[in-house]
Design brief:
The chain has helices spanning 2-24, 35-39, 68-74, 86-95, 101-114, 119-127, 134-144, 150-154, 163-191, 205-213, 218-231, 240-250, 255-266, 274-289, 295-307, 325-337, 342-361, 372-381, 390-411, 424-432, and strands at 53-56, 60-63, 66-67. The chain is an all-alpha fold. Carboxymethyldethia coenzyme *A binds at residues 43, 239, 270-272, 274, 306, 311-318, 363-366, 370-372.
């Protein structure tokens, strides 16, 4: 299989580079850690490495060195499509090079071959309480598939430098199955259906997903979902969902167990759940004003909301300090297709007003929108209005990035993660040893 061959060929040089860093340059100081960083959620501490993607605060994500715009331009597209094939994105993330169209289609074909969900997974999902959140169901489904992990089965017979092969095998199976599972959760939970259409090998990942979701405008929705999966795939490895996957994987938990950990972190309102929260917030605004508010009304509404002690979902970021290019990619997609959609106009009015309010409040380090501020609006346009499903869609996309990281972490023998913690007293003692500021 092409992905195996391409990774295998690169491994000797990557392993040499890591070995050299670990042995010859182990004492090189990268950064110093402050008490502020320790008590502030480790923000900005450089403590991980990955070559799959990186985030520049002033620019946004680069996937294997490419910005969102460059990625969307450079990846191969299916016939008649404006948005690239998701298979090509996966090739780019896992292999590290831009694929040809044939290589992108080879990944698509690999997914089609593997897109079978074991019957017991659907049974588990059907047995769950009807009020279980879709993210709970998705995480449950990932766990239910763990019995099939090739990595777990072969663990005792594999040598360490072979781990990545089984990790890749599990990752391909997992990513192939996720669209079916996500669509099944949607159709089961909101339409009481117990079956979804089979994966059609003649269609790509995005088109299959649109078909399985049974969205009316399948062609438009397939384009949206290609874009959606691509831009949600990765955001370097320090974000909560990617880091949860990385941490669990570092104990040699297989891809299914590790991905469940990833989803459990993604399901929090400060992370992936912000996409459902954000759409809910827009709908509340619309309901409150019986339609689009005036700019002044929205300004006051946002201030009242902040004063009630809540965060405005979809705004702010742990690393980014500019408008998230993933936001812009979605905005441009919507502006080109349905500029007059009322919720889009509202989302754009919020873009105009909320950053100013957050700036005036002066707390958030970034007042700009992130990926979640608009993604629900696009789903809503295509008729996917049950917004608790939105984070599940994020999860399907995020799997592409975190499994790529997972494969490479095993290929490079990344060790079990174990940062050191200190007690509050230790920190206070360290602080007391510093020169105290003198009164003026
Ligand atoms: N609305 C109100 N207050 C906000 C805010 C927002 N959108 N964003 C940040 N703040 C507040 C923080 O709550 C914090 O307040 P306290 O000092 O009272 O604790 C203060 O501003 C400083 O926070 P920060 O350093 O700017 O941001 P963090 O790195 O701590 O947190 C994030 C980042 C994303 C959790 C935060 O901006 C937030 O809560 N945003 C809203 C939720 C959201 O959109 N999350 C999705 C992020 C993208 C993703 O992961 O999918």
């Amino acid at each position: 299989m092409i992905i195996y061959d391409k990774i295998e060929a690169q491994l000797p040089s990557w392993r040499d580079r890591i070995r050299s860093l670990a042995k010859e340059h182990a004492e090189v100081v990268v950064d110093t850690v402050t008490i502020g960083e320790i008590v502030g959620g480790m923000r900005d501490i450089k403590g991980l490495y990955t070559d799959i993607s990186s985030v520049d605060p002033a620019e946004g994500i680069r996937l294997r060195g490419l910005t969102v715009k460059e990625t969307l331009k450079a990846l191969p597209k299916g016939r008649g499509n404006k948005i690239p094939l998701v298979g090509g994105l996966y090739y780019l993330l896992v292999v590290g090079d831009l694929p040809t169209k044939e290589q992108a289609l080879e990944v698509e074909a690999e997914w089609a071959k593997r897109a079978h969900v074991p019957a017991h997974v659907y049974k588990v999902l059907r047995a769950m309480p009807t009020d279980a959140h879709p993210m709970t169901l998705l995480s449950q489904a990932a766990l239910a598939m763990q019995n099939e992990s090739v990595f777990a089965k072969k663990y005792h017979e594999m040598k360490k430098d072979q781990y990545w092969i089984s990790a890749l095998e599990d990752s391909l199976n997992l990513t192939a199955r996720l669209p079916l599972i996500a669509a099944f959760i949607y159709r089961m939970k909101y339409f009481n259906e117990t079956k979804i259409p089979r994966y059609n090998p003649k269609l790509d990942y995005g088109a299959n997903f649109a078909r399985m979701m049974k969205v009316d405008d399948k062609k438009g929705y397939a384009e949206l979902m290609r874009l959606y999966f691509i831009i949600h795939s990765d955001h370097e490895s320090g974000n909560a969902s990617a880091h949860a996957m990385h941490l669990a994987g570092s104990t040699l938990s297989d891809a299914y167990l590790s991905f469940s950990a990833c989803l459990n972190a993604l399901a929090g309102p400060l992370h992936g759940l912000a996409n459902q929260e954000s759409l809910g917030w827009l709908l509340d605004v619309r309901k409150n004003f019986g339609g689009l508010p005036t700019r002044d009304d929205l300004y006051k509404y946002a201030w009242d909301f902040l004063n009630s002690g809540h965060v405005i979902p979809g705004y702010g970021h742990g690393v980014l300090r500019v408008i998230d290019p993933r936001f812009t990619a979605q905005q441009e997609f919507a502006d080109a297709r349905f500029p007059d959609f009322e919720l889009l106009k509202l989302a754009e009015m919020v873009l105009d007003v909320v950053p100013a309010v957050l700036k005036e409040q002066g707390k958030a380090k970034s007042p700009a929108p992130n990926v979640d501020a608009i993604s629900g609006t696009l789903q809503y346009y295509y008729g996917v209005r049950e917004f608790e499903i939105y984070t599940v869609l994020f999860g399907v996309g995020r799997a592409l990035g975190v499994t790529s990281n997972y494969v490479w972490a095993r290929a490079l023998g990344q060790p079990i993660e174990r940062p050191k913690s200190l007690t509050t007293k230790m920190l206070e003692e360290l602080a007391a040893q510093q020169p105290q500021p003198q009164p003026a």
